[in-house]
Design a protein that fits this description.
With 470 residues, the chain is α/β, with parallel strands linked by helices. 42% of the residues lie in helices and 14% in strands. It binds pyridoxal-5'-phosphate. In the C-terminal section; belongs to the class-I pyridoxal-phosphate-dependent aminotransferase family.
């Protein structure tokens, strides 16, 4: 049976909220205006608005009108959502940004790629050279999934620092962490299932969800506390989520690290509501503390957490070496990995295994963490001095990414386009959500060779922002 007219109107407005046309906190058209626009009676609109209030989509404010609830929780049909830019989807935006990240003339505040001075390039060069001289036949051999045993052994040893006791057989080598995330989603969900993600989220997760025809439910994430666990609880109870992808350490882009209590709570929630936790720990080794944080996997008594990571942020993004600890999904994940890529490059796996084995990794990490902290301090000071009043930055406790929140008068996409003309790259907030909610935000990579040029580029960004506020 057809639903009544007021319900159709309510559904239509709810859909517009899901699509990000009306953002959380935004005022929706008044009852009188909607009645005129839709050519229906005022009473019908009032009934529709009252239904939307019951559904928790909008809220009436006396004398002011109706507003979208701040913490909207609804699954989003990812394939239908587009950022509001006129040039199309997140893919189009990212393609442009990726292109910019390969241009040496551009100051790379945009991509989350450390400059080569923060990577042990020299040691890898020696290692690869030696391997090619002494063991050239490794190029002629497939290193079938699950990947090099000596590398898996080294990873098992390293993961002791995160509290995990693993055997090499618990680990599958992947083509970077992105591949590990894809494999996790493929193992736990099928098209149409709902996945909880952090908001803002790493854009690779948004793309994976999009390509697998999954629904995303964006759970607000704060720089201080990380993912909002009360809202995750509500979402799990209301929507029956299949999995939650969470970055407990140095989240990209907001830099949050979960507290000990939050870690325990999210594990308990996953058990209680029967969803899989997909842990993305790609920045886990880059905490500024001497001792890295524990992983969720370490406290996963029921073996339901899937752990994903890689060496892209700390050793060699170009090597594309990552890994996955699939827990009870391990057999299936290994099977998918085998079918999708058959094998992982032998040379890069062996070079990384050798690098880990010779003990230089911890020294390398200590040095880079200190350099990142210096760059962060410099960056925050420049932003404070040159950006418009009201600009805020995150305070990462690790990694090399800063989340900048601009005043509402400054549009980050405009800033991005203007900055590119001055050869400055940045990643606008729109790349981190399937809705248009982060249009006054951008992410800044500070793993750069910091010099006068970088200082000048940040001052220029500040000037461009000031220009928009005038
Ligand atoms: C949070 C997060 N997860 C995963 C990835 C993908 O890592 P990889 O380059 O190893 O595929 C990135 C890369 O930027 C990231 O920031």
């Amino acid at each position: 049976m057809d639903c009544p007219l007021y319900e159709k109107i309510a559904n239509q407005i709810e859909h517009q909220v899901h699509e990000g046309i009306f953002l959380p906190g935004a005022k929706i058209p008044s009852v009188r205006k909607s009645s005129k626009q839709m050519e229906v009676s005022v009473a019908t609109v009032l009934q529709a608005y009252s239904l939307l209030e019951d559904r928790g989509v909008i809220k009436a404010r006396p004398q002011k009108g109706y507003f979208v609830q701040e913490n909207q929780l609804q699954p989003i049909e990812s394939a239908k959502i587009e950022p509001t830019q006129n040039d199309g989807t997140i893919h189009a935006l990212l393609r442009r940004l990726l292109h910019a990240s390969q241009d040496d003339n551009i100051i790379q505040f945009g991509a989350a790629i450390p400059k080569s001075q923060f990577l042990p390039i020299r040691q890898l060069q020696r290692s690869v050279g030696r391997l090619m001289r002494l063991e050239p036949e490794i190029c002629a051999a497939y290193e079938f999934t699950p990947g090099s045993l000596s590398l898996r052994r080294q990873i098992a040893i390293r993961m002791l620092d995160s509290g995990c006791q693993l055997q090499p057989d618990d680990i599958t080598i992947t083509l970077g962490c992105q591949n590990a995330l894809m494999l996790s989603l493929q193992a736990v969900a099928k098209a149409g299932d709902t996945i909880a993600i952090e908001s803002p989220a790493y854009h690779g997760v948004l793309q994976a969800i999009e390509i697998l025809n999954l629904k995303a439910i964006e759970i607000p994430c704060s720089a201080e506390d990380g993912i909002d666990l009360d809202l995750l609880e509500q979402a799990a109870a209301k929507w029956g989520i299949k999995a939650c992808i969470v970055t407990p350490n140095n989240q990209n882009p907001i830099g949050a690290t979960l507290s000990h209590q939050a870690r325990q709570r999210i594990i308990d929630q996953s058990v209680q509501h029967n969803f899989t936790l997909i842990e993305d720990d790609v920045y886990g080794e880059l905490s500024y503390k001497d001792k890295r944080e524990r992983s969720l996997k370490a406290d996963d008594k029921l073996n339901t957490v899937i752990y994903c990571s890689s060496f892209s942020k700390s050793i060699a993004p170009g090597f594309r070496v990552g890994w996955i600890v699939g827990g009870r999904f391990q057999t299936q994940i290994e099977h998918y990995a085998y079918v999708q890529s058959l094998a992982i490059p032998t040379l890069t796996q062996t070079a990384i295994a050798n690098f880990l084995e010779n003990g230089a990794y911890d020294r390398h990490l200590r040095k880079t963490r200190l350099a990142y902290q210096d760059n962060l301090a410099r960056c925050q000071a420049l932003i404070l001095e040159h950006f418009p009043t009201g600009t805020q930055t995150s305070t990462p406790k690790g990694g090399f990414l800063l989340w900048v929140t601009l005043p509402n008068t400054v549009d980050a996409m405009t800033l991005h386009s203007q900055a590119l003309e001055s050869n400055i790259g940045l990643l606008p907030g729109l790349a981190f959500s399937l809705t248009a909610q982060f249009s006054h935000h951008f992410r800044l990579n500070y793993a750069l060779n910091w010099d006068n040029k970088t200082d000048a580029a940040l001052r220029e960004l500040g000037r461009l922002c000031q220009q928009q506020t005038n």
